[in-house]
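Suppose a colleague, Dr. K., hands you the sequence of a protein chain of 299 amino acids and asks what its three-dimensional shape might be. Before reaching for any lab equipment, you can write down a predicted structure in token form. Begin with the sequence itself:
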Amino acid sequence: MKILENLLLKMSNLGEHQKKFIITLITTLTLNRGKANFRNLSRYSDISEKTYSRWSRRQFDFIKLNRLAIQEYIPNENIKLAAMDCSFINKSGKHTYGLDNFYNGKQSKAEKGLEISTLAVVDVIYNTAYNLSTRQTPVLDNPNETRVDWYLNHFKRDCVNLPSSVEYLVTDGYYSKKKFTHGIVGEGYHQIGKFRKDANLRYLYFGQQKSGPGRKKRYDGKINLDDVSRLQEIKINDKLSIYTDVVNNVTLKCHVRIAYLVKKTGKKIATALLFSTDINLSALKIYEYYKSRFQIEFI
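The predicted structure, expressed as tokens, is then:
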């Protein structure tokens, strides 16, 4: 716990008693077996259930603690990304805060329970994710607000704690929506994500324009990924190729660089359509950065 003690020393607004409680709490959580409630925690430490309850009512900036840990123990020269994802939590009962129908990826359907949204920092060199901020998804009472709005607000609220070298937020296909993408770009970051194979994409037109009045031609036809002859091929190995170009996405209403992965395994062909709002980012980097996104699943 020496690492934790050193980090808490940098949080000057904490009293000695609260520092001692946080050290005991985090230490006990690593030893606890079963549900992490006050009664179970008291069985594995010298703090009573009532004391856990009382101290848990006090505010503590866990995001600042995570930020200090990331700054201290991830080398500055390492490439860092931000990653965002949600997790479903099974919960029975009727009166728990935030209880609603959320998508459960394990069952591939919506179920009644709880959900948390996590913003993490991914060290690409060490291929490891570190939690920065986790917030519980609330039940939305405003009919004009969607969960995409709430996920975007989560990012806007906590992105100020990201390392200054972070330029990209990597997300899965759910977050590939106009409102979310434009919100991320508006905060000064680029998004790396995933499209469905039938995404509405158009080639950009670079040919000669007609003289005279009228709007200039901007697009050169819709992209059909069954025919990749117009895309640039990057061959990774005998089984994997990446097809790339800067194209227009009709749904997002912006230009993106796509990286269309085609992997041959025996007679089967697996594909994945990745993208980046940074059109200058190479397809290889898009592929590498998106692969590292999976590390968030471990936290």
